[in-house]
Amino acid sequence: MKNKLSAFILFALLASPLFSLSQAAGNWYYNQKKSGSASNFDDGIISNNNANEAAYYRQTQQQAYYPAYSSNDTSFTIDARVMMNVKADEYVIIFATSQVGETIESCHDVINKRIDTFINTVIPLGVKKEDFYIDFISQFPIFEIEVEKKLFSKTYNEVPKGFEVRKNIHLRYKESKIVEQMLIKASQNEIYDIVKVDYVINNSQAVYDSLRATCVRIINEKAKEYKKLGIKFDSKYQTVNDNISSTYPLDRYSTFSEFVKYTGDQTKPGSKSLPRSNVPALYYDKKSFSGYDLVINPAVIEPVVQFTCNLTVKFVLKKQ
After folding, report:
1. Of 51, 72, 158, 219, which is the most exposed, with the fewest CB atoms less than 10 Å away?
2. What's the CA angle centered on 283, arms 34 and 82, to 5 degrees?
3. Within its chain, how far is the Cα of 143 from the centroid?
4. What single DSSP character describes residue 303?
5. Full-model pTM
6. For 90-200, which CATH superfamily applies?
7. Quick one: pLDDT at residue 20?
8. What is the pLDDT of residues 112-155, one digit of tens each?
């Protein structure tokens, strides 16, 4: 019976949308959705803000040079905005597991054996023991209600029944292609919850330096073009504002409304329909390219970290 149950859970894990998005969202999305901070999408209905943003994705990517605007009669501003899509150097996935037992000792013993077996089966996939970290979360007693009957009343007492221990497994890896095998190995050891996956960029400073240099080049090119219009300004007097940011895949998963929903196997006579879990359909919704002078590595086929740099320079106009 246990083998059949484990097989069914494994099938559900592989078939669910959670498995398909395991590279980034995991259980994190659903917890954020309950608090209202995961997305502006609600149960497959696209909000107006994200619908407008999504419309930009269907447009042809192009460089857009925006004209300088004069803040007053003595100065004008040139702005450059650049985005770079960067593939992660490595990832950190977090699995959550728990164990119930009659004693604290038995809980730790069983959960540690499950974790050790999982680690030993994943190491052949190309990770090392130092890539694992076991994060102890909690241990607490489990109570049941015992009814004590008296002549004219009943008394309900909490009686210790057992204990539960929870631990998280942090796993660092570099090849995204081994995720599917890791999930299968985890389910074989009764580890089903994926908390989240973090994307790691080892040298983000180098990315920002490259973006900033590109912004400087674009501003210099714009300044040359504006001089052709007869605009004269003094390069000795200027102010510069630099704004950098990064967006990670964990924040860019959104829901969509499915055209066809699975209701169970209706092709076999007498078969029972499996109840559909209330899990929204998700997809990776990258940040819009609209409004940027240049997007570096625009053609992305997997979730990436999106770095942006906005450089603004205010020049003082020369008196005519």
Report:
1. 72
2. 105
3. 36
4. -
5. 0.71
6. Protein of unknown function (DUF541), domain 2 (3.30.70.2970)
7. 38
8. 999 999 999 999 999 999 999 999 999 888 877 766 676 666 77
